[in-house]
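Researcher: Let's continue the batch. This sequence belongs to Flavin-nucleotide-binding protein, and it's 273 residues. Same format as the previous ones, please.
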Amino acid sequence: MPVQSLEYPKQPFSTVRRYDSRATYSLEQIHQIINTSHLVNVSFTVPDSPFPQTLPMIGQMGSFDRPSADTGDVLDLYLHGYVSSRIMNLSRKGGGDSKEPAGLPITVAASHVDGLVLSLTPNSHSYNYRSATLFGYATPVTDTAEKLWAMELITNSVVRDRWRNTRVPPNGAEMQSTSVLKVKITAGSAKIRSGPPSDEKGDAQDEALLNRVWTGVVPVHSVFGEPIPSPYNQLGQVPGYLGEYVKGTNAYAEETALEQAGKAMKPKGKTDD
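Model: Same format as before. Here are the structure tokens for Flavin-nucleotide-binding protein:
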């Protein structure tokens, strides 16, 4: 655990402007949002295109040099992709000028919707959400030991303990067809909204409106279903590690959504919506 709570430095491109009271630059909060997202959206510029490119990718924060580091520590972002994809090819060519770190400049975003916030008027409706954005420079991982470590990290982020419960290590063809990007993070920020609806004072004191319109929060969370065996599966039952992961993840997702909905229920008065 770090001695103190670490934060990303504020940069002009990473500072939250709108509803800045919801902003956080905490490494721990930002990394947790990224690490609990099934997909992250990775944006980068392409020399022959007038538009930025955005790819959904699987990624995970971690530290090869310090494997025991937690989400509150300085971490790198590892992204999994196909060896000849455009982002992989561009990352090999580098980016940035002499004043910037080597690698392809990318922006990574992830979001969780935790609730539908239903107020008295459409304009005051909102989401309970947790969103994070990271800015950094991506380079291919060329060291075999680090690449295998990153592949295990990413695989286990999909299903905990899955790596060692499969055929590993990957064979030569699999290693050649798979690339891993390591992103050195320059800056990051997150924005979080939680709690109940918030309405204008006039609406909140309108008895006729209050008696006609339901207000509150509908919690939102992803749910994993019961695992369905493949046609060639020969195991008689779902392995313990998989069943426990599904059950535990579902419970955590529901608990988080309910916590976000009720976090601001106790104090009275208008929220910062």
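Researcher: Any comment?
Model: Residues 240-262 form the longest helix (23 residues).
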